[in-house]
Design a protein that fits this description.
The chain is mainly α. It is built from 23 helices and 10 strands.
Length: about 500
């Protein structure tokens, strides 16, 4: 029996039994199979069941992400949906690169919610909890109705092997959440196989750290590979690149599909690395050009490393967000109170922001609502995408003209951080890049026109876009930052 068949048998048994745990209303299933719930990763972590956690991590270090294919019910459900689609459309997958920013972004939000005690958010992202909601709210009423039909038939023949139970929806919001979760997961699985597992699921992301170092892996024998691409076209994790003979082990769920489809014996599930793929011929002139370019770029970077001003090379140390007394909310949100009242924390604006300005708030009272910070970029005047995508009116649609005249905050200069003061060099980055002309360089000593120039902020003109804060060369804290306004103003 090959890997694929073994995995399918084990997964089918686990899936049926766990599903029955949620469907069973007599309590008998839990007597025998309640342990299946205890070996789920997140419940084990929350229960501080170190034995189970260690065993699952060891399984991952030996076999790869076998947990996701055999033990996790939500993962198995995705396989079932993807298998149904595969009956009508074969060889439908393709290799895609890892969406690392999305994977680690969701994991970060999950960890914050877990630490902050935001139970509803944790339940929303936890794969086992999601599967439980789906089965309990969507499948159980059907199961109970079927039981009642059988009970009626049995009663007609004076048999009491079945008994009637009440069928009712326990919580409409939970029912809706379960339905939405199912639709999302089902669509992702139908179209992309393991897209949910490899881009959203926090448990999958955690296990991916260990799967990279697993003892047993899917390995290529380049000499045998004919580049037929069947392995890639049947990889539901989209992690096999047949062109380069590589596998992204962080996303591979060890399903065995690729092994089953390879007709040339070029793939194996083993601990011994096969022969490495022969490098493709590279044009010598092009290689020399690239090497020379890389050396020139490196030399230029080293030459500029000590220079803190301008040039875009002031990334010696990552920026640290300042401690703002008033958080920044996007133009169009009108005020912090409007944002708090209307925002549902759907994260649409955060994911759509092309400048890396919006991110989920870690404030317990505003958890998951968007807040602005300028370590990665600034709120460009030519962009109003967040106001275009917000579905609740928390960020109202505004034109570019309205945005450039909306004051969400004002810049504040911090003398002790400014390179003009600390390093005795000329700068002026903040003035050069201010789109509203709110910053002017003035002599540090008002009585000496030849003294170093420092920024002076005209708060009446500043719109709080953060260009000055983002492009300030001072590290780790910018010498100029934006303080938010509770109520936005038009200037």
């Amino acid at each position: 029996m090959n890997l694929k068949r073994i995995r399918r048998v084990l997964a089918a048994v686990v899936f049926v039994l766990i599903t029955l745990l949620f469907l069973d209303f007599s309590g008998t299933m839990h007597v025998w199979f309640g342990w299946l719930a205890k070996i789920q990763f997140l419940p084990a972590v929350l229960a501080l069941n170190l034995v189970v956690v260690i065993v699952l991590l060891l399984l991952t270090l030996v076999f790869g992400r076998i947990y996701c294919s055999v033990i996790c019910p939500l993962g198995i459900m995705q396989d079932l949906i993807s298998w149904l689609h595969g009956k009508t459309k074969k060889n439908r997958f393709s290799y895609s690169g890892e969406k690392r920013w999305l994977r680690y972004g969701v994991l970060g939000v999950f960890v914050v919610a877990l630490v902050a005690g935001a139970g509803s958010l944790v339940a929303l992202l936890a794969p086992y909890s999601s599967f439980g909601r789906i089965v309990t709210n969507l499948l159980k009423p059907i199961y109970e109705s079927g039981n009642n039909v059988l009970a009626s038939i049995a009663e007609h023949y004076e048999s009491y092997a079945f008994y009637h139970v009440d069928v009712w929806i326990r919580s409409m919001p939970t029912f809706i959440m379960a339905a939405v979760t199912f639709v999302i997961v089902a669509v992702l699985a139908w179209r992309g196989g393991r897209t949910y597992c490899n881009t959203i699921c926090p448990v999958g992301t955690v296990l991916s750290f260990f799967a990279r170092f697993s003892w047993l892996k899917i390995r290529f024998d380049a000499d045998k590979c004919k580049n037929c691409s069947l392995c890639t076209k049947n990889c539901k994790a989209s992690c096999i690149d047949y062109k380069t003979h590589t596998v992204d082990y962080s996303r591979c769920v060890t399903c065995g599909n690729c092994l089953d489809k390879c007709k040339f014996g070029a793939l194996s599930y083993s601990h011994a690395a096969g022969k490495k793929a022969e490098p493709k011929p590279v044009d010598g002139g092009r290689r020399s050009f690239l090497v020379a370019s890389a050396m020139a770029t490196t030399a230029a970077a080293l030459a500029q490393e000590k220079k803190k001003v301008d040039g875009g090379l002031a990334t010696i140390e990552d920026k640290v967000a300042p401690a703002r007394k008033t958080p920044l909310t996007p133009p169009g949100s009108l005020s912090a109170s409007n944002m708090a009242k209307r925002c549902t924390g759907c994260q649409l604006c955060v994911s759509e922001c092309p400048n890396g300005v919006l991110r989920p708030s870690t404030d317990l009272l505003k958890l998951m609502q968007p807040t602005m910070s300028y370590e990665l970029g600034y709120c460009r005047p030519e962009c109003h995408r967040c106001s275009e995508v917000c579905p609740t009116g928390a960020i109202k649609p505004i034109s570019l003209e309205e945005k450039t005249s909306t004051q969400i905050g004002h810049a504040v200069w911090v003398k002790k951080n400014c390179v003009v003061v600390t390093d005795g060099v000329e700068c002026g980055n903040c003035e050069r890049h201010c789109p509203s002309g709110a910053i002017q360089m003035v002599p540090m000593d008002e009585n000496d026109e030849l003294s170093p120039l420092i920024p002076a902020v005209n708060e009446a003109k500043c719109i709080g876009c953060g260009a000055c804060e983002n492009l300030c060369p001072a590290r780790p804290f910018s010498a100029i930052y934006v303080e938010g306004h509770e109520q936005h103003h038009q200037i």
